[in-house]
Specification:
With 271 residues, the protein is of the alpha+beta class. The protein is built from six helices and ten strands; from the N terminus they run αβαβββββββααααββ. The chain has a four-stranded antiparallel sheet. A four-stranded antiparallel sheet has the order 2-3-4-8. A two-stranded antiparallel sheet has the order 9-10.
Length: 271
């Protein structure tokens, strides 16, 4: 599943090709995504220039003069740029044709993403209104995590992955950040000190920034906005390594299921 670094990588890949470009045509081949693509979406986008491209959590927002196109990549979606005339493949559900001759193409084998129109203030939309702060922003620090965790008895990994607490820290990066912070993923969120949350907040930033720098994590279904996969998978220390030796102490990494997700940790390094 594309996580925040993959979405940020996509944003950086497509933004230079979209800014100030007018949309010449919109082709919807498959409207049945997680939520149906609005029938009037092509008409709403037609001839409109893209004024800005930004991200909120894992949502991409294309600002037009009269509203925003909101895109979520779901479990397996991707946005890529291809030249006009390039044949569509089986799971290429939407083409946004730009006046430059490029197509912004949305591909989603599992069809669990979305492409919706927001006519008003985007951050008041129900999907965005209750999101927590960005992990790379100034509001995400030790004081914030400590205060929000005091009445939370759920495991800290679940706490960290709650989008109402902080956006975009998905399963891969939660595993990695907790390992590098020395925090056991099953420890209750309200049993962690402010100092340890300080270290965790710094490491979450470092892990996400490193993943963005390297283009996201290479997953089976993910392709970046420039058509190239990410390479952060080379740096993963625990995710996907259950039963293997810890890179820090050589103990055998344990793997459990937590909230339907694979959770890998070192019983020796994480307390």
């Amino acid at each position: 599943m594309p996580e925040l670094p993959e979405v940020e990588t996509t944003l950086r890949g497509i933004r230079p090709y979209l800014l100030k470009q007018k949309i010449q045509e919109v082709v919807v081949r498959q409207a049945s995504l997680r939520w149906p693509i609005p029938q009037d979406l092509p008409a709403l986008l037609l001839k409109a220039p893209v004024e800005e491209v930004r991200r909120r959590g894992k949502y991409l927002l294309l600002k037009l003069p009269h509203g925003h196109l909101m895109v979520h990549l779901g479990m397996s979606g991707s946005l890529s740029l291809t030249a006009v005339g390039t044949a569509a493949s089986k799971h290429d559900h939407v083409d946004i044709v730009l006046e430059s001759g490029w197509i912004l193409r949305y591909n989603d084998p599992r069809r669990f993403g979305c492409m919706l129109w927001i006519g008003g203030e985007p951050f008041e939309h129900p999907l965005l209104a209750n999101l927590g702060p960005e992990p790379l922003g100034n509001l995400f620090d030790d004081s914030y995590l400590y205060q929000r965790s005091r009445r939370k008895s759920l495991p800290v990994k679940s706490f960290l992955m709650d989008s109402k607490i902080v956006v975009g820290v998905g399963n891969i990066y939660a595993n990695e950040a907790l390992f590098r912070s020395g925090i056991h993923p099953l420890r209750k969120a309200n049993r962690i000190s402010k100092n340890r949350y300080g270290r965790l907040s710094v490491i979450v930033r470092e892990v996400l920034a490193a993943a963005i720098e390297q283009g996201g994590t290479t997953l089976r279904d993910f392709v970046g906005g420039d058509g190239k996969p990410g390479y952060f998978k080379q740096e993963l220390q625990v995710y996907g390594r259950g039963g293997q030796a810890c890179m820090a102490c050589s103990a055998i990494l344990k793997e459990v299921r937590l909230g339907q997700r694979s959770t890998v940790y070192c019983p020796n390094c994480q307390r």
